[in-house]
Model the fold of this input.
Amino acid sequence: MNQYIATFLFQYKVCPLPGLGHLLVQVGAAKTDIVNHQLLAPVPAIVFSSTEIASEEFIEYLATKRKESFEASKAALSIHVEAIRKGMPLDQIGQFSSQEEGRLIFHPIAIDPLLLPATQAVRVVHPDSEHAILVGDKESTNTAMTEYYNEELAPKDRWWIGALVVAAIAIGIIWYYCDAEGCNGNFGNVALVLG
Done:
């Protein structure tokens, strides 16, 4: 009977246990392993709820698999559920235990990671396609940013370098004239007369 419960549970993600409640498979989220370039499979968890749900579909499934009548399968399931309540383990699913106040606790079996292989996840880059990117707080495109950084910078206006060279030559000539002629404070024919 345990194999039918497990098969039905993993196929339909829910399995009623009349008089006990129902088991439910909850699927978690996939996770990324960026370092190893992998996408890890979502890990399902088996949970128990004491809420009763309709069990006719499961009993019909049992009757078909066991090749017996609906009533015989219903009676066999009822006996099996009572054994589960008393602590009989459910193969590949888990086991119930009861607390002092009579409340049932379900202890699920962890899913084997070999059943949930990781998938390779390699980033694909299309250098020739245009896509939106965020630059600071502005949205732009990769093409516009490539053009921006590859622009030839306009030659800077450097007229002042020539003016600086001419000024240095003029100062040098004036200094040479004063030193060679002995200006002594006089420039050219003009003399400073103090009176």
The mean pLDDT is 84. The beta strands are 14-17, 21-27, 31-33, 38-40, 44-49, 94-98, 104-108, 119-120, 132-135, 138-141. Residues 2-120 form one domain.
